[in-house]
Design goal:
Length: 548
């Protein structure tokens, strides 16, 4: 490859990273300002947190540009913790510090892969809940009033709020909403509507001397280093908050990583994503700034603009520093209703609106999960919502598997024993039955299948055929023992057909083979049937001799 081609290639990469980094910074700035104010940390904490995280991701992160900073779900968690701890910022900083450490620990384990298996209804319900919280919590600032601390208070006092609306603030907020919602796409590609609203509405408020709440003060200087106060009591007291925050921070980053992998056709390991974010969040705690995660919208914007390497992350951080240095006086004049309007648009974008189009076709179980997660997210607790959603989804999935697991019966009638059967009282006590378990025999289906055996009892030999290759769980083992006990109490012999040697070994370890008898366990159904026919023939011959 010639030198000119190499130079041209590197120039192309640099220009792509430059434009991608600048575009990402333009998108990140209003969001970082807005979330900083919404959490109670302040606008500066939001911007500097984004700078630190994005810079660290650019230095030690994956080769793909990861534009990081505070996001909607993270902001909601921080705001909730701030409310729970009565705005005790020093304690929240300690929680951020612990959360960063937990992220690094999480990166060293396989637990980070779990995010791939979270059901879509859980994610959808959670994101819809977060979007709804952001919208509801920004209604008061949009009206020019102080925000309430939670969604329940915001909804409960909505009618009272409407009596004290600041008309000038509401006007600016509505203008902001009009700009961010209705700016044409071709303009949005050149200059994001959030920046247009931020600049235009701020200039209008200053020009006409509007009496509205503003950011007022923001420092361009690097934040002072703060060492989090650590002691065992605080660690124990606040640990559950740190776990909650670490899970949200990590989940956001991993989901962004999945999106990036899809766009760039790469495969970024979870460790390369979480360790830089964990280190960045630890540094955020040392500087008293807001933690964050790899932000999907900002990262995708950088990639779509041409960014191909992590150099875009460094450029994005530098652009944010320049914005603070050059425009700090202007930033201080930004009205809070304008930030509220921007956050409402962010909340709207978080909502999973595509689900509404297909909701009437969605399985009822999925809707139950989504609704539970949504309600708990909005009115109770984010982590409790996700946990409850995953548990409910797992239970409903188990139920579906159990419903699909059926018993298929077929009688074996042999001409050699048919004459003998005619002379016996009409009963099922001397029949051979073969019962196939179609589907997985696990904790969900085991209980259901045991109840069916009452319907098919009355035979002499019952051949139970397990067709699946899936291992049995402990509930299925216990259910099998229950079946053995029931059949034995009615003097019915059980023959078991297991087609997998590993399952056979599993039964041996749990002493099930000893209960059935090793000679009554087969690998082929035909062997079991022949065994039962021969045994029944001997039995019938003996009875005939006795009757003579």
């Amino acid at each position: 490859m010639s030198k000119s081609v190499v130079i041209k290639r590197w120039f192309s990469i640099f220009t792509g990273d430059l434009f991608g980094g600048v575009n990402a910074a333009i998108i990140a700035l209003p969001q970082a300002l807005a979330f900083g104010v919404a959490t109670g940390f302040g606008a500066g904490a939001g911007v500097w947190g984004a700078i630190i995280l994005t810079f660290i991701a650019g230095i030690i992160g994956s080769k793909v540009p990861m534009i990081s900073g505070i996001t909607g779900p993270v902001a909601i968690v921080i705001a909730s913790i701030m409310h729970a701890l009565n705005q005790d910022i020093s304690s929240v900083i300690f929680i951020i510090f612990i959360a960063g450490i937990l992220q690094i620990i999480l990166a060293m384990t396989k637990l980070s892969d779990i995010v791939k298996y979270v059901p879509y209804p859980v994610i959808s319900g959670f994101m819809n809940g977060v979007g709804a919280i952001i919208i509801i919590m920004q209604l008061n600032p949009l009206f020019g009033l102080e925000p309430f601390s939670n969604t329940i208070e915001s909804i409960k006092n909505l009618l009272l709020t409407l009596q004290f609306v600041n008309i000038q603030a509401l006007g600016l907020g509505l203008l902001t909403l009009a700009i961010v919602f209705f700016t044409p796409k071709f303009i949005n590609k050149i200059l994001p509507s959030q920046i247009i609203a931020l600049i235009l509405c701020t200039l209008i408020s200053v020009k006409f001397g509007m009496h509205v709440s503003r950011i007022s003060e923001i420092s361009a200087a690097f934040p002072e280093i703060v060492v989090p106060k650590t002691n065992l009591h605080d660690f124990i007291t606040y640990f559950h908050y740190a776990v909650t925050l670490a899970i949200i921070l990590s989940s956001e980053t991993l989901l962004t990583g999945l999106v990036c992998n899809s766009i760039t056709k790469t495969n970024i390991p979870a460790r390369q994503l979480l360790i830089p974010q964990g280190i960045g969040n630890i540094l955020c705690s040392f500087t008293g700034t807001l933690p964050g995660a790899a932000a999907t919208m900002r990262t995708v914007a950088a990639i779509k603009t041409g960014a191909t390497t992590k150099g875009a992350s460094i450029i994005s951080a530098i652009v944010l520093i320049l914005c603070l240095s050059v425009f700090s006086n202007f930033v201080a004049q930004i009205p809070l209703p304008v930030l509220a309007g921007i956050l409402i648009k962010i909340g709207y974008d978080i909502l999973d609106l595509k689900l509404i189009k297909v909701i009437k076709y969605a399985p009822r179980d999925d809707l139950y999960v989504l609704l539970v997660v949504f309600v708990l997210t909005v009115f109770y607790n984010l982590i409790a919502a996700v946990g409850a959603g995953i548990v409910l989804a797992a239970l409903l999935y188990a139920k579906r598997l159990a419903d699909q697991t059926t018993l298929v019966q077929k009688e074996v009638i042999d001409p050699d024993i048919q004459d003998f059967e005619k002379g016996i009282e009409e009963s099922y006590s001397h029949k051979i039955r073969v019962v196939h378990i179609n589907g997985q025999f696990f904790f969900g289906s085991a209980t259901q299948l045991v109840s069916h055996f009452d319907e098919i009892l009355g035979t002499k030999y019952l051949i139970l055929v397990y067709d699946s290759e899936a291992a049995l769980d402990i509930s299925a083992i216990f259910a099998l023992e229950d079946i053995i006990t029931r059949l034995r109490s009615q003097h019915i012999r059980l023959l078991l057909v297991i087609k997998n040697a590993q399952i056979h070994e599993q039964l041996e370890k749990h002493s099930v083979t000893a209960q059935i008898g090793e000679c009554h366990i087969f690998y082929e159904e035909l062997e079991a049937v022949n065994f039962a026919k021969q045994a029944l023939q001997r039995c019938l011959h003996i009875e005939e001799e006795e009757n003579k």
